[in-house]
Amino acid sequence: MYQEKSLHEHILLRPDAYIGSIKEHTQPLWVFEKGEMVYRRTTYVPGLCKIFEEILMNAVDNKRTDPSMDSIIVKIDVDQNTISVRNNGNGVPVAQLEEKNVYIPELVFGCLLTSSHFDDNTTGGRTGYGAKLTNIFSTRFTIETNLNRYEHEKIVFTRNMKEKSTPVVTTCESIDKWTEVTFEPDLEMFHISKIGKDTVALMEKRIVECAACLGETVKVTINDTLLEVNSFNDYVDLYLGANSSRNDPLPRMTVKVNDKWEICVSLSKDKFQQISFVNSIATTKGGPHVDYVTTQIIDFITNSVKKKMNYAKVETDNVKKHMWVFVNCVIDHPVFDWLKETLIFPESSFGSKCKLSKDILKKDENPGMVKQLLSWATSKHGKDLDLGIEKLVDANKAGGEDSKLCTLILTEGDSAKTLVMTGLSFLSDESRELYGVFPLQGKLMNVRGASEDKINKNKKIQQLKTILGLENGKEYGNLRYGHVMIMTDQDHDGFHIKGLIINLFHVMWPELLERDPSFLCEFVTPIVKATHEDGKKETFFSMPELKKWKNNLLPNDIPRWTYKTYKGLGTSSDEEAQTYFENISIHKRDFLWQNEDDGKAIDLAFNSDKPEDRRTWLKNYTFINKELILFSKEDNRRSIPEMIDGLKPGQRKTLFCSLARDWKTECKVSVLTAHAIDRSDYNHGEQSLASTIIKMAQDYVGSSNVNLLLPMGQFGSQIFGGQDAASARYLYTMISPATRALFHKDDDVLLAWMDGDNQRMIEPKWYIPIIPTVLVNGCEGIGTGWSTFVPKYSTKDVIKNIMRLMSGEALEPMVPSYRGFKGTITETEGGFITKGVFEKNIQNSTIRITELPIKHLSNYKKFLHVLKTEEKFIKEIRDNSSRSSIDILLTLSRENMEIADEDIYTKLKLRTKILTTNMNLFDPTSQEEIKKYGSPLDSKINSVFLRLEIY
């Protein structure tokens, strides 16, 4: 339905777009507390802080229009839910606009898109919203202004600026000039019953910031207490000075460059920090003004290092991460993002310069801030500058006298690295210097059985060797690090990565695994957190641990628990990161080498020559790392379908969500992917599920005989084996009409539905299709110790044999059949031979290929190109194939045209073999067991009888 809203209505309807979130948020922030700045976990309402700032900035801006202003008085009464801001000096004129028949204060504070600052160079508010937003989000909003004894006006707005009183203009005895705004925030709109103490602490911090920017010419009071912050230096000292958690102040370089720029730079713990103001507005997310200052200092540092160490590779990010920059500047006509958190304004338009000359920076070396950065960058503890390894955060003490105490934390990717960096920032300076971090960005190579040449060419392994100071086959007394800590997701893929790292050291440096204290350890994080309705919490580090705990719950207590699954380390918040590292002993687990049996177990898990042994291991195991077997079992679950429905978990989840939504109108594949992830508790990569959905909709020759979803868009072609499908965000799909016929709605009540997170029903353990879909659509997959391949068979042939089975007749052997396939399929030992179709034209020296065999090369055109450019067998290639048909014309030399037809099948790879000896499927009648089926008729019989049994 199309609706037209007034601007006032739109602001109330979409407050997030104007003042930020109107709900409570919790995150670590700096707050003003007991006379100092404290970084702590804070619960506040961003929108409430924003409407307070709008009124405060009105008072601050008045200083720029009236330099005689020397007082700002702020009162916050939480009990009465009132906030007032009063400033002296010239205010809004008490005069009436004849053309509008309205007083100017009423216009400025009660009419949207009005402002006296539209053309102002250096004020903070220039949008025409400002104080009106405060008015709109208040139940009562009062303006009083006094210009002299003859001009005093008071006006009251109520009900979110929907109603206003008649302006009262009076005379008064005072000759003082002042303006006061008092407002009562609409607490119900902000989903709170009372302004919280953390919100007040943030408001007070903002007042302190304004006092610092205004300087000593303006006295600022909070609830009758005069602030002692009279300069930017005073303000910076609240962060860097000695305080309750630090006996000595941090080193700093402070420079007032000119009337419009003053800066301070100090040292930070392993991550760049900035606190900045533009025209007294706090740019909490920085911008070009911060980059402008930071770049000059970094350039000075890096150039100085290069002069002293011309061989050093100085990465600017490695210098920047040690900097804490404070900037206070005045910029002409500044432009901000909507919430004024970031300056979005080019340096060329600042209207002033902040040049930090070499003389300024050199003079500061004796006080020490720049000197310490230089010392750090040139010392042997700054090894990450020398190693030149991207994304490595090297421990400051790695490679030095305390290297044995250092730990290198290996993460899967960048988000996990960010979690580690956040957690480390809460450690003491002494402890922090002992930790390095390196993201692997994927799985390590399985080095067991790999050639030395292949290992040496692996970039990630070579980087690890450099970071640790390792060499192939060499024993070590001292390394750059004394320990390696593995920090992966607590899912099955994370277990696999963990196993690959252990495998690497066991193959290449086994003596390191036998060290005591242990060289290898892991950092475990929760995979699920459960919360009871009474607030009680439980944390679980593995799914078996969660399952065991759930089984012991009383039936009436089960629905009282809610669950949060941590699909990756990136799910954890800053507060959780702090908790992890402040309690590191709880999360750290050493890998202790017991005896050679441990080595045999690792060899069994990763030796490619022992798949049969791994099958036994998966059934009966006492493996040192019980987590690794969870990956292997899950790997099989994801790779090998159930016999009863022929579906893998990702396919079953997609089918469940498609049937549940009854998706009969087209939707984007990306939308269905997101819905399936949320609705079915899918815990793997989004891209993986999107790929599954695309394959379920593909209908080219060789894909599915009955595609369960309909393709709407470019879902891939036969010649590329579907790999040329468009991105999920461009594709549309919907449920196929045939799908509900295969998976009948009346069967739903018979299915074994599973419970997901928070006791919500998700997909069934398996579906019971009316015919064996595993034969109709086939399947293929490679797991751990197991693989499977089931050819596709004609739907008609499958149905005929079911009818024979129901009539007690003998079943007839079936030949694989692929929808639309124009080639031939003939039986051979252990399977079938499929052949494509070609036509020879001796006269024109051409071969026209009109069909490719089943399971042909996924990039057949690339193969033909090799025959043309490298083997010179083909002279010219013309490809007129479409998405659903093959038409490739090859021109050969007359000599090559003499090749026999059978040899053409071989030369052009137009013949393939599909096996019927590897039909391994999960057996629904057993627990976690994979069963080998000798023929498609075996699975058909089992499927039919199981369906009958369920009925």
Automatic annotation (TrEMBL):
It catalyses: ATP-dependent breakage, passage and rejoining of double-stranded DNA. SMART domains: HATPase_c, TOP2c, TOP4c. This is DNA topoisomerase 2. Control of topological states of DNA by transient breakage and subsequent rejoining of DNA strands. Topoisomerase II makes double-strand breaks. GO terms for biological process: DNA topological change; resolution of meiotic recombination intermediates; sister chromatid segregation. The active site is at residue 730. It comes from the Eukaryota. The keyword Kinase does not apply. Belongs to the type II topoisomerase family. Its cofactor is Ca(2+); Mg(2+). GO terms for cellular component: nucleus. Residues 640-951 form the Topo IIA-type catalytic domain. Its EC number is 5.6.2.2. Homodimer. It is an enzyme of class 5 (isomerase).
